[in-house]
Design brief:
By secondary structure, the chain is of the alpha/beta class. The chain has 6 helices and 19 strands. Helix 1 (about 15-25) packs parallel to helix 2 (about 60-75), helix 1 runs parallel beside helix 6 and helix 4 (about 155-165) packs parallel to helix 5 (about 185-190). Bound molecules: flavin-adenine dinucleotide and NADP nicotinamide-adenine-dinucleotide phosphate.
Length: about 300
């Protein structure tokens, strides 16, 4: 019979939440595996400067990710590439499928975060990578001296829009209401930036071009006026959806797909925890993902010692 390696804890996702959970479980001597479908860091890799992580007045997202990864691996956690597609229950064990591989664990921490919501307008898919982007840090430098259009009114649109002013000739932020959702400190900074202008109460109808983006068509939702303006790039920041499809059968999500936990990060399934952005919560930040990860790591330790 095939010999199974059984982990104490498998952590799915290596963003700030997953890496913190791994730090706590491996430091508590639990046999820990992190499974990650990309590279370590999660959304930190798409973030320019982080100014609200204690201990670092300002640090670049990728640098913070690298530090967290080194911290998470220092007590012997294992790390493997894998996109998890299923978690099943087999007695005391959780059976985790990632590609053609199967992993076994007594406890699982789900730390898969969320993904960028699509705007779903004509031209968005067609020009993705040819003027349409969801990541200023990754693509900003391609838009030197171009007129840049940013869609959204939350922290991401306003913060990343401000970041893009170092590349673009100008940055125009379009929002569907007349008030931003973003934190006040980010709003104030954007309002004070001469390169940024705002278009209020407007939604994008179409992104147009030849081989790449050349213009955007938007409609004022109050007056009905439709305008087409030339832009060389479009950055879309209209929110996030949870990456949680693979747990559908476990019945631990709300209607929108966010995973529901108690304050101990426990889901409705014994031994399955969820942390960070994938969880139903009010504040999705690096600090709160890290806090969730610490709690889940400690709770996983208690769960395993109580059940062994
Ligand atoms: P993530 O960071 O999203 O990590 C999830 C990981 O899980 C990813 O690596 C992903 O590849 C992996 N994964 C997903 N599905 C699977 C699967 N099926 N199998 C295996 N692996 C999987 N917060 C701040 O505090 N300060 C900021 O300045 C800030 N700036 C931001 C800027 C932007 C543009 C965005 C989008 C967010 C920003 N945030 C900021 C929010 C912050 O990045 C998140 O709250 C935080 O990264 C959440 O951490 P997480 O570990 O829950 O998830
Ligand atoms: P968000 O807070 O959900 O904001 C999404 C924005 O897009 C909202 O302003 C929303 O408008 C708008 N929107 C949604 N659907 C739209 C549509 N179909 N058409 C046009 N506009 C649409 O998402 P986010 O800004 O990506 O932030 C996600 C999380 O990351 C948040 O928790 C945020 O705090 C965090 N984050 C933090 C920082 C930081 O701390 N510095 C930076 C970035 C992100 P309405 O306002 O009308 O709903």
């Amino acid at each position: 019979m095939e010999e199974r390696t059984i982990y104490d804890v498998v952590i799915i996702g290596s963003g700030p939440g997953g890496m913190t959970a791994a730090l706590y479980t491996s430091r508590a001597n639990l046999k820990t595996l992190i499974l990650e479908k990309g590279v370590p860091g999660g959304e930190l890799l798409n973030t320019s400067d982080v100014e609200n992580y204690p201990g670092f007045p300002t640090i670049s997202g990728p640098e913070l990710a690298d530090n967290m990864y080194k911290g998470a691996m220092q007590f012997g956690a294992e790390y493997a590439y894998g996109q998890v597609s299923k978690i099943e229950l087999e007695g005391d064990l959780k059976v985790i499928t990632a590609g053609k591989k199967t992993y076994y664990a007594y406890a699982v921490v789900i730390a898969t975060g969320s993904y960028h919501r699509k705007l779903e307008v004509p031209g968005e898919e067609e020009y993705a990578g040819r003027g349409v982007s969801y990541c200023a840090v990754c693509d900003g430098a391609f838009f030197k001296d171009k007129k840049i259009f940013v869609i959204g009114g939350g922290d991401s649109a306003v913060e990343e829009g401000t970041y893009l002013t170092q590349f673009g000739k100008s940055v125009t932020i379009v929002h569907r209401r007349d008030q931003l959702r973003a934190q006040k400190v980010l709003q104030d900074r954007a309002f004070a930036n001469e390169k940024i202008s705002f278009i209020w109460d407007s939604v994008v109808k179409e992104i147009k071009g030849e081989n790449r983006v050349e213009s955007v068509v938007f409609e004022n939702v109050k007056t009905g006026q439709v305008t087409e303006q030339a832009f060389g790039g479009v950055f879309i920041y209209v929110g996030l959806d949870p990456l949680s499809d693979f747990v559908k059968e476990l019945n631990i999500q709300d209607q929108a797909g966010w995973i529901v936990t108690d304050s101990h990060m426990k889901t409705a399934v014994d031994g399955i925890f969820a942390v960070g952005d994938v969880r139903l919560k009010d504040l999705r930040q690096v600090t709160t993902a890290v806090g969730d990860g610490a709690i889940a790591g400690q709770e996983a330790y208690k769960f395993i010692t109580e059940h062994s």
